[in-house]
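Design a sequence for this backbone.
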């Protein structure tokens, strides 16, 4: 953001901080360790319990084999049914400005977990119809957005106050790697069985978050309504519209993730062409998760020794390279090697982008700011990348029809466009290493 606006926006942020959260989350190394644990537990439950995680393979093959959706229809279904993730900034504003039963975090987590658990339960008894599954998916994703946004606000507050945005980004994607190790084999196993098993486990996970939140989130009642968050958000929107550097930051996230995706076509290719079982596909996802865990450990080392700019440039290149390997995706052996390499390189490549998102979030509006940047990611992936790639894959009477190799090359080339946007980012976000405290402007 332009330096000329720093003083005025800082004053607004100080008022917002004073009204909404007068006691910092992190005041000592002990507090930081406690927040690391709290964030880890919350991220684990709210991530594993999402329909796109534990339910990814069961939903995908249910829609493919029972609803007879092709890749394009399936991508469009999820693009619309998950629209709540595109509105995540509004969820952030809600959590930051309107306390629920006197708290900004605790009550929102409890309510969202209860609603999500109920939706998962209803999937077990819902009729096999498009309308029933669509509306349950819409409500479930809405509840998961509230839960995810609340955890994200805690993550950003702790990261900024403790100078640990890079380490917390590593924790976040380390947990994602662990979840992939669990969700891959579990999802493959569930996809081969009655869908009620998936619904029951999803409900158990989300309902378990209710007592966990009561025990782990010791937030005192008495938080006051903070409408200044909305004023600050309006100021931020105006500054973004006038700032070429902020357009560059949003463009960087957009161009990396909007490249025509081949994730859904790959699942169809695995089952229809390579004849992989759902259990084996789940094991491949687990190998990718192991690669991701190794990547997060490596990033935690490099982010404290290198500034963000070389990490971003290298990350974009690694993310593109990780896609090219899928050209040789032909046998079970090659699939195991490629998915393992992709899990490592792709996560190592995108970690700097989410480190950037945490650094760029303005103080006093942690949930809103972080959610705003994450919504760019969600729109790019679910509303653009997946539908566009799947549409090309299913395009009849064309060179793209079921041509996975052509789609892979297009994905790689489009991702590399983001390299030209790195120099447009605000210099204050690029020159510091993790552990050096900076003030977001």
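Sequence:
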């Amino acid at each position: 953001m332009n330096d000329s606006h720093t003083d005025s926006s800082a004053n607004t942020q100080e008022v917002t901080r004073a009204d909404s959260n007068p006691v910092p989350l992190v005041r000592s190394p002990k507090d930081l360790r406690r927040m690391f644990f709290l964030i880890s537990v919350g991220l684990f439950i709210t991530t594993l319990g999402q329909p796109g995680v534990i339910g990814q393979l069961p939903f995908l093959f249910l829609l493919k084999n029972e609803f007879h959706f092709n890749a394009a229809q399936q991508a469009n279904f999820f693009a619309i049914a998950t629209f709540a993730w595109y509105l995540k900034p509004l969820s952030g504003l809600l959590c930051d400005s309107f306390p629920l039963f006197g708290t900004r975090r605790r009550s929102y987590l409890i309510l969202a977990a209860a609603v999500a658990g109920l939706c998962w339960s209803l999937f077990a008894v819902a009729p096999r119809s498009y309308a029933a599954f669509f509306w349950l998916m819409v409500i479930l994703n809405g509840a998961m957005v509230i839960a995810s946004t609340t955890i994200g606000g805690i993550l950003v507050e702790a990261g900024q106050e403790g100078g640990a945005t890079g380490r917390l980004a590593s924790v976040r994607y380390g947990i994602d790697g662990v979840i992939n190790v669990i969700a891959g084999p579990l999802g493959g196993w569930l996809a081969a069985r009655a869908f009620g098993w998936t619904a029951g486990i999803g409900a158990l996970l989300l309902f378990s978050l209710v007592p966990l939140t009561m025990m782990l989130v010791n937030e005192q009642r008495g938080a006051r309504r903070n409408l200044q968050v909305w004023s600050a958000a309006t100021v931020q929107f105006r500054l973004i519209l006038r700032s070429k550097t902020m357009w560059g930051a949003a463009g960087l996230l957009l161009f990396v993730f909007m490249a025509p995706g081949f994730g859904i076509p790959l699942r169809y290719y695995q089952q229809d062409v390579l004849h992989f079982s759902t259990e084996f596909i789940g094991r491949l996802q687990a190998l990718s998760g192991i690669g991701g865990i190794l990547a997060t450990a490596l990033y935690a080392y490099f982010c404290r020794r290198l500034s963000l700019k070389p990490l971003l440039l290298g990350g974009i290149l690694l993310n593109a390279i990780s896609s090219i390997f899928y050209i040789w995706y032909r046998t079970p052996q090659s699939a195991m090697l490629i998915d393992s390499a992709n899990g490592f390189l792709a996560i190592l490549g995108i970690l700097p982008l989410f480190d950037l998102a945490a650094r760029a979030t303005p103080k006093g509006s942690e949930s809103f700011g972080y959610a705003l940047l994450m919504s760019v990611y969600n729109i790019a992936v679910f509303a653009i990348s997946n539908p566009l790639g799947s549409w090309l894959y299913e395009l009849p009477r064309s060179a793209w029809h079921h041509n996975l190799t052509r789609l892979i090359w297009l994905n790689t080339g489009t991702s590399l466009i983001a390299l030209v946007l790195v120099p447009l980012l605000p210099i204050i976000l690029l020159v510091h290493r993790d552990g050096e405290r900076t003030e977001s402007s």
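The chain has one domain: 3-430.
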